[in-house]
Backbone:
């Protein structure tokens, strides 16, 4: 457990401002917080998890990798770097092959692997199901929970009885990360998906769960039933934290689902839900939802760690 100099040397339960409705586990609370630096860490660690502010992570993570540590990171820096795997294990596990490229180019013994932004990770599994129909373009409008901004990210006076039609940097993340995730790894790099992605990101007064309205133009002309079947066919993986089925799809008899309060905790918060699937003249429109702090953040980093272990990188 590492943090800033202000917390160094303290027990975690003394240093942390715990905001969850369950207590800190005793074993975790008793941990002593260390300095966030390679020289402060034991040599026998197989895997590090990082969720540092991106400006800090941009300096610290490369130093950790150079020192030989393997890092599974939720921080936004370097997600688009050509030699850094950006992975959702059920979607593009083969992109871990970039680690060899990364080590060759940077001279590291360690490795850096990233999970995508919380809003991106909600949409991409459903787009992966559509890839067989030929994705030509994607437009998405998000309704994002306040937890995505952090505990003090949006003031109560700003969000209660309101919606904020802008989230700094979020749209660019969705538009670029999705194309990398759905790209093809050729052994030396990733050829990004050849499709335009346009995003409009909005903050709404729900606590957890990002809901997204997606409109995709397709080369083929699938029916709504064929699209639902394709989405239901996106399987989980054999990794411990992955659900058996990645995408839960609501039928046409439930056009008002998914909803954040009712569906964000499916699969212990690791499933994506989709509904409102409607074939259009251009392709399809639908809604999708995921728990932004579980599947979209901590759970995503954990799952990447499990993939690194399963594939023999640690």
Residues:
């Amino acid at each position: 457990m590492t943090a800033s100099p202000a917390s160094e040397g303290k027990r975690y339960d003394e240093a942390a401002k715990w905001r969850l409705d369950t207590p800190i586990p005793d074993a975790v609370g008793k941990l002593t917080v260390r300095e966030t630096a390679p020289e402060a860490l034991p040599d026998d660690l197989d895997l590090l998890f990082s969720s540092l502010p991106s400006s800090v992570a941009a300096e610290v993570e490369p130093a950790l990798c150079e020192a030989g540590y393997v890092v599974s990171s939720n921080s936004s820096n370097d997600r688009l770097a050509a030699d850094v795997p950006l992975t959702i294990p059920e979607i593009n596990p083969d992109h871990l092959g970039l680690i060899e490229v990364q080590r060759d180019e940077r001279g590291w013994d360690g490795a850096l692997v990233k999970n995508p932004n919380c809003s991106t990770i909600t949409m991409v599994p459903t787009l992966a199901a559509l890839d067989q129909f030929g994705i030509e373009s994607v437009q998405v409008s998000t309704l994002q929970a306040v937890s995505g901004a952090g505990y003090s990210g949006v003031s109560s006076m700003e969000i209660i009885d309101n919606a904020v039609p802008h989230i700094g940097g979020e749209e660019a993340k969705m538009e670029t990360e999705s194309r990398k995730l759905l790209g093809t790894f050729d052994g030396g790099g990733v050829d990004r998906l050849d499709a335009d992605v346009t995003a409009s990101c909005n903050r709404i007064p729900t606590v957890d769960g990002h809901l997204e309205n997606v409109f995709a133009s397709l080369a083929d002309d699938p029916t709504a039933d064929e699209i639902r079947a394709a989405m239901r066919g996106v399987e989980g993986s054999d990794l411990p934290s992955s659900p058996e089925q990645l995408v839960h799809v609501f039928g046409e008899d439930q056009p008002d689902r998914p909803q954040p309060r009712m569906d964000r905790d499916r699969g212990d918060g690791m499933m994506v839900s989709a509904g409102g699937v409607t074939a259009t003249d251009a392709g399809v429109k639908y809604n999708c939802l995921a728990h932004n702090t579980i599947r979209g953040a901590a759970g995503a980093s954990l799952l990447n760690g499990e993939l690194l272990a399963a594939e023999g990188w640690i």
Notes: The chain has a mean pLDDT of 97. The domain at 2-116+298-310 is CATH 3.40.50.720 (Rossmann fold). The radius of gyration is 20 Å.
